[in-house]
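Key idea: predict the complex, not the pieces.
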Amino acid sequence: MSAVAKDIASRILTFREALNEALRQEMARDKRVILLGEDVGRKGGIAGVSRGLLEEFGRERVIDTPISEMAIAGACCGAAMSGLRPVGEFYYSDMLMFMADNIVTSGARLKLATGRTAPYVLRGRDGSKPEDGGPHQDSYAAWFAHIPGLKVVMPATPSDAKGLLAAAIRDDNPVIFLEQIPLYGVKGFVPAGEHLVPLGKADIKMAGTDVTLACVGRCVHDALSARERWAQRGVSIEVFDLRSLRPLDIDAIRASVRKTGRLAVMHEGWASYGISAEVIACVSDGPELLLRAPAQRVGTLETHIPASPRLAAACLPNAVRLDAAISTLVG
Amino acid sequence: MNAANTGKEPGRETLRRMMEQLVLVREFETRCEELWKARVHMVGEFHLSLGQEAIAVGTCAAIRPSDLICPSIRGMGVYLCRGASLRDLMTTFFDRAGGIANGRWAHWHSPVPDAGVLAQTGMLGSGLVTSGGVALSQKYLKTGNVVVTMLGDGATNTGYFHEGVNFAAFADLPLVIIIENNGYAVSTPISSVVRVKDLSRRAEGYGIPGITVDGNDAIAVYQTVDDALERARAGGGPTLIECKTYRFGGSTVKDADALRPAAEKDAARRNCPVQRFKGMLSERGLLVEDDYRSMVKAARARIEEAERLAAEQPMLDASGDPLTEFWPYAEGVSK
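Result:
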């Protein structure tokens, strides 16, 4: 193996490791960055994202809290108002509902009251659990993307995970950072050293000419598989990773659809009033008529996700429903 | 306001049934752990109550069949003591059709209406506030039933807990709140995140009785719960009971449990609630070794049969229209 190949191989990290590296580098760089949450210290986080950080940065900066999500969210907001740059962890997106009041009525609207924003990140596990099933399988990205004053981010690859988390920590606004559960073990090349992915900038994961498939989080990987399937049938899909749900990279989405004329949006969470509703609205209400076919939404079906993984798979956005949407577009 | 324990002693028949139930819970959960570790297809997370069985057994022996109970996330003992079908539990674990949840709800949160077990969710503390509502309707409808709601020590630090206890106190609800304090919220020692030694002291702040009891002593749990039930049934409002215990294994079967000290775990094994109860019954001359052995044998036979029957059920069928099957709205309007 050449030296360059070895270098690259040594930089193949899991999504989890990439997030850990972002936290470690930002904490080393900026003493104002602290971590707090349930089991973030001794255990290294419920998903292992903060492993080793308690040992490296000490108990003053890595705080194991009680199971008190309201207090965690409030502490992050308050500490951010007064000079720190906290990163709070939640166990699952469901727990954002406990935190929601503080996030919405304190964090997001702080500038109105004080003229300043609060720089903090709330991050944690989001979305479906294909292995285990059970409760806590929802994705509440759209709830928070609805709120002016918040930024909402959902990376799909290890490289984006590191770059977006570092950028989120440096951002002067509250950021909701969502880590989809099936992605933690996904491996990919991650740049060493400082690596920042700007919030609000989408990424074309694979270019295509016939269909824009906008997607986010784990659905990016479903979209990449679909792209291969459909290439065999002569359909060229552009896999368009939204990465940030707010700010939404509207110009880039329009540019992609201007090229393809066809749009499908795939994401976890319900489609009604959801991510796809917003993306399609942004494409439709611009100055030009871009769509040559009715836009398609592939979200979680409008019901609740059953505990059984077998039954859950039928309700979640899946390949069957994605293929049906693409058929409608190119049929 | 730490109330004295004045509850009555369980009778001989009850004691014997409690022994059987302790054995059943121990054997059933041990088998679940074995199956899970052997990678037999078991869906969901298993928050086992091994080491904590006396709390469910003592509580369920004290309540009446018509009383309602909302278990904690570590609630398998409650399901078993309330008579939920072993086959139905196994069917759900195996992701097969039917069972206690039919694949809809997480098995460790599922309601079992026939057994008076209320549904809960994974949102810690939420079972307490919902139980408060169930207690409100018991009071309003004058059913004479009491609601028992259980939660772990970790959940007592949620906003739900504090609002829920005060709400029950203000409204004089027939509610018994049981904290299963096993000392840890996943990896975090409860002693590192609260400044009171006994969580029952929190009751003082809400103006209700609070009692701490040895949660590995099924008789003490029974007496304390019995006392609280009587008070609630007589209109005396809620009681907060803290049962101190320790879980033998990790927070879930998946938890490597690398952070709790070995000495602590060994001490917990020596303070086994099943063996302690067995010792107490033997001392009183109510149990001989052969009785105990036959109880273990009977429990194992029941579990084996449940497994066999569950494995015969068809797998859950995902071929239907999910929107029809899982439609979240009621049809029509109430007449």
